[in-house]
Amino acid sequence: MTDFSYQLYSSREFPPLEKTLEMLKRLGYAQVEGYGGVYTDVEATKAALDANGLSMPTGHFSIDLLESDPQQVIDIAETLGIKAIYCPYLAVEQRPVDAAGWSAFGQRLEAAHSVYSKAGFTFGWHNHDFEFVALADGSIPQKLIFDAAPSIGWEADIAWIIRGGGDPFEWIKNYGSRVGAVHVKDIAPAGENTSEDGWSDVGHGTVDWKALIAALKATPVKYFVMEHDKPADDERFARRSIATVKAL
Questions:
Q1: Are strands 223-226 and 186-187 parallel, antiparallel or unpaired?
Q2: What is the pLDDT of residues 114-127, one digit of tens each?
Q3: Less Cβ crowding at N or C end of the chain, within 10 Å?
Q4: pTM for the complete prediction?
């Protein structure tokens, strides 16, 4: 592991993008991960990446855009050099309420995989916590998604698995073959960092990243992406987190 990535969503409250990219390059990052906010002016984003010698091998795209305008997604990805496209979220009002609904959503992801894999991209799902909360019948949405979408890859957000009540080691054991990317983030001890939604800089929280990295070595993971959903200081988060992971 030598090339570490950074989800630019972590710095959305610390513009401009050019300043963020300069900081990341200085701290030793080689890659970044895109999200909707950096696709508004794709050419400007590409120029800023090039100016700092950074690549963007992975990117998040909403389910709405993935389904409604595949060509726009492909154009953005090709311009920015994105190789792996991940669907990152499902808004509360869009989330199914039963097993059949989650299976149907998995089928939608499988259909999207067909489109984007034919265009030469890796395609997969990026989880949050809600996929690990059991439904009324005891079924787990994330398993229903995977069962209905046998071809899709997975960007495993380990800390969200934990927050959802799942055991990340079990999920890595059972579905590790799908893992192409991992979000590396940390959870503060209970009651701490409440102004940062309870997240922590990597290595300064409760997640056992040393053991997790060891477990992930048995998977085909290619991208390790640092993320903090609400840092008070993005430079602090980026600096302390890469220092932690480089030392593992």
A1: unpaired
A2: 999 999 999 999 99
A3: N
A4: 0.97
